[in-house]
Amino acid sequence: MNNPKKLLTPRVIIQMLFFIVLIPFLPLLISWRWNWWEAWVYGLLSILSFIASRLLVARQHPDLIAERARYVQHKDAQPWDKRLAPLMGLAGILVLLIAGLDELMGWSPSFSAPVKILALVLMLAGYALSSYALIENRFFSGMVRLQTDRGQTVVSSGPYRWMRHPGYAGALLVYLVTPLFLDSALAYLPVLLTMGFYVLRTSLEDRFLQEELDGYREYAKRVRYRLLPGVW
User: Structural domain of residue 167, as residue ranges?
Assistant: First the structure.
């Protein structure tokens, strides 16, 4: 088992504080509207879902925590993913950046309370689905690679019974409703870009797994859909 002290290097700690604590509150920091309760709820939900899922993963698959902490160090990660993963991260940050600017400048009209309630429910569902996938899949790495060092096998339990990439599906659901919850129609521009990156990564990763991971091609025949059951 990896030593937690070796995993929690200053670089890792700074990255965690930036992406896990600072970025979720980016709309608040940009708009400077400290009474914007939707932004507070969004930021707190993002942080709490991360903490809860990682605590559960640490109990069930402690080696996965180490795997994800070293995601930038994997030399065997697919070359296309080394370029695509940072772009996905930047696009996700852009969603929150636009939402914050939109609130500051008042570009978009507010959505109704029922729309926001529905968005919040779907956001919770998206976080739950992504967390479920992470907890169920011991090989849910931060980078696309064949994890021969960890004895990677096909995971077909939990949400993987319904779709082949439920973690991505949950993340897409969160992105899809975030502009509604944060009153920013303009944020759908970077959301569409983010969704395009996710679909591209799903397609490339699925092809890679079918070619390289024993048993995945047979699994793909049983579970037909990648992200959205009945569609794709």
Answer: 4-222
Torsion region of 77: left, alpha or beta (phi above 0 gives left; psi -120 to 50 gives alpha): beta
Task: Tell me, yes or no, if the pTM score tops 0.85.
Answer: yes
**Which CATH number is 151's domain given?**
1.20.120.1630
User: Does some domain include residue 59?
Assistant: yes
Q: Which two tokens stand for residue 24?
A: 């979720």
**Nearest CA to 174 among 66, 96, 87?**
96
Distance (Å, rounded) from C-alpha 88 to C-alpha 81? 10
pLDDT at position 12 is 58
- Predicted confidence band at 144 (pLDDT cuts at 50, 70, 90)? very high
**Domain count along the chain:** 1
Specify if 67 maps to a domain: yes
- What backbone phi and psi angles, to 5 degrees, belong to 80? -65, -30
Task: Establish if 215 belongs to a structural domain.
Answer: yes
